[in-house]
Amino acid sequence: MRTNRSEADGDGTEPVKWWQMYFEIAVEISEIGTIATGRGIRRLRFLRKRYGGRNWRKQKGVAAVRLPGGSIRQAEVHWYEAHGVGQKGWKIKRFLD
Q1: Is 3 exposed, middle or buried (0-12, 13-18, 19+ CB in 10 A)?
Q2: What is the mean pLDDT of residues 72-81?
Q3: pLDDT tens, 39-66?
Q4: Of 66, 61, 57, which Cα lies nearest the Cα of 77?
Q5: Which of 49, 73, 77, 94 maximizes the CB count within 10 A of its CB?
């Protein structure tokens, strides 16, 4: 059993980090909304240390995403963004179709 999430799997591959994106946005994001800002973001310290920036926002939206297998699905996506830094930490929260 792996106790540390940063350890490699035994097959020589690195484990998936939360900030790695294994999908691409196929069309424009719609229904964009803000989930949290500033101190309401749990990962704020990490984001500022890694990327800099001051005014971080956690955003959500709906988009068609292309998965590694080539399939395209509607999904709710979450990400962080800050002025001057851009959008970071993309993840699929759930599939809508």
Answers
A1: exposed
A2: 95
A3: 999 999 999 999 998 899 999 999 999 9
A4: 61
A5: 77
88 found inside a domain? yes
Q: How many residues does the chain have?
A: 97
Residue written as token pair 């179709």: 97
pTM of the model: 0.75
Residue with tokens 């990962």: 43
- 3 falls within a domain: no
For 58, the domain range is 24-95
Say yes or no to pLDDT of 18 above 70.
no
Please tell me the total count of domains within the chain.
1
Question: DSSP of 26-64, one letter per residue?
Answer: -S--EEEEEEEEGGG-TTHHHHHHHH--S-EEEEEEEEE
Residue 53 to residue 37: CA distance in whole angstroms: 13
**Residue 12: helix, strand or coil by DSSP?**
coil
